Amino acid sequence: MREINVKEITSAVKKLCIDANYYLSSDVREKLNSARQEEEWEIAKGILDNIIENAEIAKNEKMPMCQDTGMACIFVEIGQDVHVTGGLLEEAINKGVAEGYSEGYLRKSVVKDPLDRVNTGDNTPAVIYYDIVQGDKIKITVAPKGFGSENMSQIKMLKPADGLEGVKEFILKVVKEAGPNPCPPIVVGVGIGGTFDRAAMLAKKALLRPLNSTNKNEFYANLEEELVEAINKMGIGPQGFGGKTTSLGVNIETYPTHIAGLPVAVNINCHATRHAEIEL
User: Fold this and answer.
1) pTM, whole model, 2 decimals?
2) pLDDT per position as a tens digit, 32-42
3) Which own/partner contact pairs does 119-123 have at CB distance under 8 Å and 24+ positions apart?
4) Which residues have C-beta within 8 Å of that of residue 242, sequence separation ≥ 6?
C-alpha cells in the first residue's frame, strides 16, 4: 500500500488550477493553427489570429487566457493500492483550488447557494469526479469550465427508436442553438448512454480527450468526423462572424444503457478548452 500525503495533493491541485488557466494545451493550439491555415474568410482569419495571439500572451505573461477562469471541474483517478494520509482527500483538493485561484489571480466565480448568489470568495467547492482504478498512483485532471459555454449545454432522454439519426439531430440542434454564445470555435463533448446523470458526466469527460485523438471504436470515430464536418458547414465561424471553423472537434464517450432509454448529453466548450493533469 503506497501512501500519499494530502499536502502533496493540495500542492498539485494548486499548480494545475494555475497552469490550466495560463497555458493552452498543445492539441488545442495545433487545431487553432490548422484552422487558421484553412480559413478563407478574412474576418474569421483575423479572429483566429487574435485567439492564437491571446493564448501566446497568456503563456508568456503568465496570466489567465480568459477573464472567466471557470468553475474547477476535477477528475480524480485513485489507484486502489493508494492510502491518502494526513487528512481528507476532498478537503485537500478544495484547499488546492482555493490556493491556486488566489495565488494565480484567477477570478472567483463560485456562489455558495444557486439562489442566494453569495460568492464563496475562493472558487470552492470544486466539482469533483472520483474513479477507482488499478495501481498505486493518483491521477488528477483539472478542467476549469467557463459558463458562457456551459450554459449552452443540453441533455435529452431520447427514445431508442430515435436511433442514430435522432442522436445526430439533437447534437446539431444544440450547436445551432448555441450559435456564437459559447465563443467558437468550440469543442463539443458528447455522452451517449448510461443514465441521465451518467450521460452528462461522459459529455464533460469527453472534453478532456486530446483533439488529435479519436474514439477507439471505429463507428464512433467516423461519427465524430461526420459531426465536425456538419457543424463546420453551419457557417457560424469564429466568434459567430462566419467562416469555416465553428468546431475544432467533437469527442464522443459512451456507456451501456437501459433497453428503454437513449440518453444523450452535449457539453460545449469554448476555444479555450482548458485542462491540465498530473500523476502522483
Assistant:
1) 0.96
2) 999 999 999 99
3) 122/97, 122/98, 123/69, 123/71, 123/72, 123/97, 123/98
4) 41, 43, 44, 235, 236
